[in-house]
Each structure stands twice: as C-alpha cells, then as structure tokens.
Amino acid sequence: MSQTRSAQTSAPTDTSLPTTNDPALQRILQSVESLGLTENLLELELQGYTVVKGVLSEDRIERAKAAILRRVERNAGHQVDPATATAADFHGMAYQHYLIFDDPVFQEILLEPKPLAVVNYLLGESCVLSSMGSHFRGPGGMPLAAHADGQTDAFLTAAASIANCNYALTPYTREAGALVMFPGSHLKRRQPTPHENWTAHGKTIMEVMAEQLSPAELDQVDWQIPRGGVTMEIDPGDAVIWHGNSWHAGWRREIPGVRINLAAYFCRPFMSTQERRGDTRHPEVFERYANDPRFGKLLGEKVFNGWQEEGPDFSGKRTSPQGLYD
C-alpha cells in the first residue's frame, strides 16, 4: 500500500548528534546543528532520505521556473503554459540537462547552505556537482521506474558515493506527478527487481515497455505503485535529499499543467561526473564567485585527477582531500 509524505512538519523532538574526536566530522556536525538540521540528519540515517522545508525563496522559485520554461520552449519550438498545458503541448517527462550556466539562479541554488550541509555529511567536503537539470513532466507518458541512482549493486556500499537533492518548483502530489521515495531502501544496497517496481494488470513495467504501446495507449495504463513507496506531497521550495542507494520513482502526471523540479546531483571527486567539468566558456560565472571557494570546488576546479600531457599539478591548486571530512 502506498503512503503519502505530507507537507506538514512534525513537532520537534529533543535530539542531538553524537560528539566525535574527528575535527573535520565535528565541523560538519556543528554546521548541521547550527542550521537546525539535526532531525533531518537522523531521518536521513534511518530512512535514506529527508525533506528540508522551505529552502528556496519565492523569488528563486519563480526565477528557476522561468529559466527552465525558457529552455523547454526553446527546445519545443512553442510556448508551454505551466498551469494549463495538455499532453499535446508537452507529453510525459523529458530531462532538461546542463542548467548550471543557463541562469544565475541555478548557481545561487547550488550554494544553498542547508542542502549542502546534508550533502557534505553524505559525501564529504570535497564532493562535486555531477549534474544539474530538470525532470520536466507534462501530462501522460510513463511513470519513472524505481531505481537507485547511477550504480550497479556491487558499488552500492554503506558509505554514499552519490547524493541527490530534488527541489520542488511546483506542488508535488500524486496527480501532479510527484516523486516517490522508499524508506529504508538504502540499506538493501541493491537495485529493485522488476517485481519490486511499477506494475500494471499483473505485468512489470519492463514487460509493458516491451509491448511498445502507442503514447495514447500508454496514457491509459493503470499503474500500481511499488510496495513501500511513499509519495512526496511537498510544496514549492522544499528539497528532498537522499543517499545514493535510496530507491526512488515518480508518478505519471494525470492533470493539466506541468511539474517542474530542479535536481542537483552530487558525487565524490574520484568519480566521473555526468556533466563534463572544466567548462571555460563562462569565465564571468567563476569571476562572480572568486571569493567563494566552495563554488569552484563544487564545479571541479580542485579535483586532482584528470590531467593531460602537462601531467599532475603538485602546486596545490588541485588537491587531494586533506584535513577535510571525506
């Protein structure tokens, strides 16, 4: 049976994080506590994901939505009304990739302190942005299959290698195509099986896909949510952050209009990023954040590996993690 995660917050409890002799970890935990995220961290440990309420201001929500809509309309060749769009205007889900340089608002969101504090705890202070994009969803199409991000079973270790931060920019409800999370799935350290995924009339989602139904036929399929799935009914500006092992999925949108999110996907620095780092076409962006070393680090400027014929850089400009929580 499916469950729903309400947008309402629960009453705070008297919790505290453990003390540690590791100065780097202590710095991370102190940051978490100073931002009022202690309960979120405990929630993350127990269920593999947490919801941080009201991260984005109304201004940033509207600017991000407008920038994503500009990208969508440029690609589609026509306007898309976010409130009234039909499947004829935008059908199903299409990922809008590499948004980080599209508009300054995405760089601002990347540096939001609360999500970064949680991501730092999961991946360490030397983590990098792997990708930033939007899973833009209109009516119809397929649900998003349940999965753990980016890795095969053998690499899903207790320590997270990747983490995802999913911002709602429009309301998340079942009918609107909300995100679905699976509490405790991060402890399984494996991908879901076909029979732990969406089903329809006794068939798995893979079997339905193999039938190669027409878009109109797919829109009529009655999907059953995977066992244990919790629908994230949250508000614009809320952020869902999860351990890379955590299973997640998404409902098909059943009502007019579009669901807009922003997904910031992070990884440890030894991993290949989904988006290529070292993009030199936007020097003004890096100049804007010249006094904020965190921005350059997230964009891969400190990653030690990746040299060409010039060989490794031992000047200290590119550094292996030292004195950091990693």
Write the layout of secondary structure elements.
Layout: E1 3-5, H1 23-34, H2 38-47, E2 49-52, H3 58-76, E3 93-96, H4 104-110, H5 113-123, E4 128-137, E5 144-147, E6 162-168, E7 179-181, E8 199-200, E9 203-204, H6 205-210, H7 215-219, E10 230-232, E11 239-243, E12 248-250, E13 261-267, H8 283-288, H9 293-298
Parallel strand pairs: 1-10
Antiparallel strand pairs: 2-11, 3-4, 4-13, 5-12, 6-11, 6-13, 7-10, 7-12, 8-9
Helix pairs in contact: 1-5, 3-4
Question: How is this structure best described in words?
Answer:
There is one protein chain. This protein is an alpha+beta fold. Strands 2-11-6-13-4-3 form a 6-stranded antiparallel beta sheet. It is globular. It has one domain: Jelly Rolls (Sandwich). It contains 9 helices and 13 strands. Mean pLDDT is 92; it is low at 7-14. α1 runs antiparallel to α5 and α3 packs across α4 (104-110).
